[in-house]
């Protein structure tokens, strides 16, 4: 039976973890997979997370099942952070916990496929390489629109809007909520407003992927685009990840919300989400979501989390500034936000940087800014600048 399967290449991003780990060179630089790193190149457990884990260890009395929607308190406590105080708790919002942002995206795609046979989703070029397999796996037809030109380091807004003008009512539009992966490029206020207007006018359904809230410009600021789209459109979906902003990567902590036209429609959509979830993962893993809930229930832990999140964001911003100042070819980094920048490297240049200089980055030329340090940034610039395709 398995002879019918064809060989598969290793996942392009996850392969970098192993390649970097097995590289014995002391000066190697890891700008690959999207995890936060401190000045020592470490990804420590946040103090707020450690404190919450202690509380859980002391107080958790049962490991019995919670149900397909997971930790309901976790979902409720995230709502004001994501949707704002006014919208939090609205009967037009239905949320469930999911295994990471990836689980949320897959659940969203399955819900769309069930609601609307033949459904189509628009994704920007470029986007996170896992988006297409997730959506295709659920049976959605994927259409693409231009988003970013790595050579000019600019959003191709006109071309993007032109393409989306041809979308059909009911089409889903994937929007990165903040800190675009892989480009770091963000729509400005006017562009965000124009996109929201277009989605509302043409009856498009935004699916917002919000995986880096707080790591771009701030918790409130990073929610701005999502809130604008939700306010403009009758129906929307929001896939959320706590993996990065709580540093909980391997715990796989996420959630999916649906915004329906009415409270009843929302309830039906949420009930369908639970049926789909039951058929895939049955119930999401508890520990990471419980940690987030314990933090969000306690003002002193919220303050500690905010301070740690601010520190991560400030470090990334400082490195962005430094990279931009180090060479005119990297100037775009200062205009962008979050962990990533997409640089115009050819695949050969990416390989050369890895093999000759021990510098690891995604195959499309994406770098994780958090992997730079005050110490290694100069070496990166010296090796990388001559290889840029401009
Ligand atoms: C990334 O883009 O590097 C992260 O989101 C990790 C992943 O799962 O790809």
Automatic annotation (TrEMBL):
It holds the Pfam family Aminotran_1_2. InterPro entries: Aminotransferase_I/II_large, Asp_trans, PyrdxlP-dep_Trfase, PyrdxlP-dep_Trfase_major, PyrdxlP-dep_Trfase_small. Its cofactor is pyridoxal 5'-phosphate. Homodimer. The keyword Iron does not apply. Keywords: Aminotransferase, Pyridoxal phosphate, Transferase. One of its GO terms (molecular function) is transaminase activity. Belongs to the class-I pyridoxal-phosphate-dependent aminotransferase family. It comes from the Bacteria. NCBIfam families: PRK09257.1. Coiled coil: none annotated. The keyword Transcription does not apply. Residues 27-383 form the Aminotransferase class I/classII large domain. This is Aspartate/tyrosine/aromatic aminotransferase. PANTHER family: ASPARTATE AMINOTRANSFERASE (PTHR11879), ASPARTATE AMINOTRANSFERASE, MITOCHONDRIAL (PTHR11879:SF22).
């Amino acid at each position: 039976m398995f002879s019918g399967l064809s060989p598969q290449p290793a996942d392009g991003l996850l392969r970098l973890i192993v390649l970097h780990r097995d590289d014995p060179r002391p000066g190697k630089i890891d700008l690959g997979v999207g995890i936060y790193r401190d000045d020592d190149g470490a990804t420590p457990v946040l103090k707020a997370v450690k404190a919450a884990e202690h509380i859980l260890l002391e107080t958790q009395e049962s490991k019995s099942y919670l149900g397909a929607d997971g930790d309901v308190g976790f979902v409720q406590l995230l709502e004001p952070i994501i949707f704002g105080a006014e919208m939090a708790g609205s009967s037009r919002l239905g949320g469930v916990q999911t295994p990471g942002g990836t689980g949320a995206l897959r659940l969203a795609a399955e819900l769309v496929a069930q609601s609307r046979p033949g459904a189509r989703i628009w994704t920007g070029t470029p986007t996170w390489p896992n988006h297409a397999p997730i959506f295709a796996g659920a049976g959605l037809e994927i259409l693409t629109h231009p988003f970013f030109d790595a050579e000019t380091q600019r959003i191709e807004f006109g071309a993007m809007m032109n393409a989306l003008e041809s979308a059909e009512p009911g089409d889903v539009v994937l929007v990165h909520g903040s800190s675009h992966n892989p480009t770091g490029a963000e729509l400005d206020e006017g562009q965000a407003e124009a996109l929201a207007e277009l989605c509302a006018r043409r009856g498009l359904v935004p699916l917002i992927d919000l995986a880096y809230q707080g790591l771009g410009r701030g918790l409130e600021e990073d929610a701005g685009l999502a809130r604008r789209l939700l306010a403009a459109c009758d129906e929307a979906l929001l896939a959320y990840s706590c993996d990065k902003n709580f540093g909980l990567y391997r715990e796989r902590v996420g959630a999916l919300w649906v915004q329906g036209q009415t409270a009843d429609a929302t309830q039906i959509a949420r009930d369908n989400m639970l049926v789909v979830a039951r058929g895939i993962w049955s119930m999401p893993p508890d520990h990471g979501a419980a940690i987030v809930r314990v933090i969000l229930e306690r003002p002193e832990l919220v303050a500690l989390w905010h301070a740690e999140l601010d520190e991560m964001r400030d470090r990334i911003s400082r490195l962005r500034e430094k990279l931009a100042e180090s060479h005119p070819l990297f100037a775009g980094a200062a205009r962008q936000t979050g962990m990533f920048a997409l640089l115009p490297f050819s695949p050969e240049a990416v390989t050369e940087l890895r093999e000759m200089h021990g510098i690891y980055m995604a195959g499309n030329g994406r770098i994780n800014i958090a992997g730079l340090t005050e110490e290694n940034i100069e070496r990166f610039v010296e090796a990388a600048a001559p290889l840029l395709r401009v």
